[in-house]
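re: ur question from yesterday

yeah so i grabbed the chain u mentioned. its 409 aa long if i counted rite. heres the sequnce exactly as i have it in my notes:
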Amino acid sequence: MNLPLRVLLGVSGGIAAIKAPEIVRRLRERGHEVRCILTPNAGSFVAPLPLEVLTGSPVLREEYLQANNSGRELHIEMGRWADVLCVAPATCNVLARLALGLADDFLTTTALVFEGPLVIAPAMSSEMGSKEVVQGHLQTLQDRGVRKVGPVVGALATGEIGAGRMAEPAEIVAAIEEIYRQEADLRDRTVLIAAGPTREPLDPIRYLSNRSTGKMGFSLAAEAAARGARTYLVSGPVELPTPDGVERIDVVTALEMESRMNELAPLADLVIMSAAVADFRPRSVSREKIKKGTGTPEIDLEPNPDILSGLKEVAAQAVRVGFAAETQNLEAEALRKLEAKKAHFIVANDVSRADVGFASDDNEVVVFSRDGEPVRIPRQSKQRIARELLDLFVEALNTREAGIAPSSQ
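ran it thru and got these structure tokens back, copy pasting raw so excuse formatting
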């Protein structure tokens, strides 16, 4: 990390709150700035004074939500100030409020404002932690990109040994630093992503297309931008909002997508071709609506360009990634495309399944590369798939910087 972090530590009302001063001490020893928020119940377990002495700043509590003469909205100020928000301990109550987007105290109000990485360190009894509703809240938060550290097996407040003990302060501090490293590991990089379908017009009304919704590509763009990359997203027609920090370029046809990708590819360190480009387009487009009464039309098709393969010259300096959406012979098709497209990676998935792929919020993929065994990423949300994929691609970028050129160039 180039600079110390500004860490906002939220402490909620559980016995593990007694470890908050140790978390602060370790963060300060490593040069980070720290501010603390205490929930109303946390004050029963840890006093504000030790935290104020260790941080050198007032502890933020409920009174800061009340009207005062300063005219400042401190929850907004704190949300903008922090690089990382860490909630330790994160009780079942706080997990539920974070998952549901409730904002009824200083901590949850600030969390709703905060746009950076959020780290949670759950702490609860084994019985509470095993409940389906609690696991559901944890899953919701992780699907949004929240990073979880612990809980671990150990002695609980009841005196029993079980899963639910908060991770130790050293682990929490390491997780905060690792999360930030991951969030920033594409800083000073440029990432170019193509997403969604293309539409190839038959007449002014009809077109050839496919079922791609663009969710996978948009998840990749959101993750790349969150990790600090300058992110260009060339998108076919989809109904998705533009992720924060992403520069979006909308296109319709394969030829338009090819043109914009060729224009931007020389800038890129990483090119991800996740778009489902139509393989064919009509050789000619009717100026008028084709009428049923004129009989069944004969449509003469011609192939669209293979955009990723065509980028091998203009993006020779970049790590290039293709996608293979298949209904059969997944591995054989992925390996064929890996060679034909001169890609460094092919991400393959079975779109014949109803539970993953097109239109689904989940995916399951196998990543093929020229070096190494295939990497299988099991079914999970597309946001989490995006995170794991970018971990692989960042490693490839770092390998290039170390002077080991990918063998596909």
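noticed a couple things. The domain at 190-401 is CATH 3.40.50.10300 (Rossmann fold). also DSSP finds 13 helices and 19 strands in the chain.
anyway ttyl
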